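Hello again, I could really use a second opinion on something today. I've been staring at a protein lately and its backbone has me curious. You're getting the sequence in one-letter code plus the fold written as tokens. I'd be grateful if you could look everything over and explain what you see. No rush at all, and the record is pasted right below:
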Amino acid sequence: MKTFAQAFPPPDDLLEMEPEELAVFVLDFLCGAGQDHHSILNRPNFLAPDRFREYCKEDGKMYLVRMALMEAWIWLEREGLIAPDVDQGKEEWVFVTRRGRRLRNRVDFETFRKGHFLPRENLDPVLAKEVYPLFIRGDYDTAVFRAFKEVEIRVRGKAGLPKELIGVPLMRRAFHDETGSLTDQEAAPGEKQAISDLFAGAIGTFKNPSSHRDVDFEDPGEVAEIILFANYLLRFVGRIQNQATIEGQPSCDTAA
């Protein structure tokens, strides 16, 4: 079985991680517990100070590490990735659920150790809150869908268009080269068409397929790039002054 030093990032790096990021490492560590190391499936045993002596020699920092690991453990429980072991009779004993083992099999832990594909601090606040956790736990299809759903929501709100208008038609209406309220009418005709194509193509490629069927994303690097593309589109929409704002009327954002 791996030692703490082998299984987790260095203490300083660990303390910078969010619970859902750290939970991935805890899950891998718990899955590696064989019959000879069954005791780590008990929360007090897992967090016992003696386990951390070689990993973190500073008592003050050790306390912070243990608290961070407790947060990660609770996150795993809340997400249904670990659960009380019914044979033990005490809630402190857990087992890794079927969902947890599926997640562990999907995650490239070496990739996580080498660096983060998706820097949370660079994400739109909604993506950071709702999409990033999905990405961390390997739910790539849902993460991509949710990212581009947010693009759709943001465009609709900015353009003041009805909820019934969705997907590619929504993008074509909002960025219509002549009548689109989000179109820069001072831009060259080719540029206006290109922006319309950009948004319509993004929604048609990444949101619509996930709405109708399972899309089997496997490469976390590719998924991160797709989410960052949605992040850029949200930035683009955020910079737009629609026609109502330009004419001195209340903006669609305020009305929404």
Remarks:
- The beta strands are 82-84, 94-96.
- Residues 121-255 form one domain.
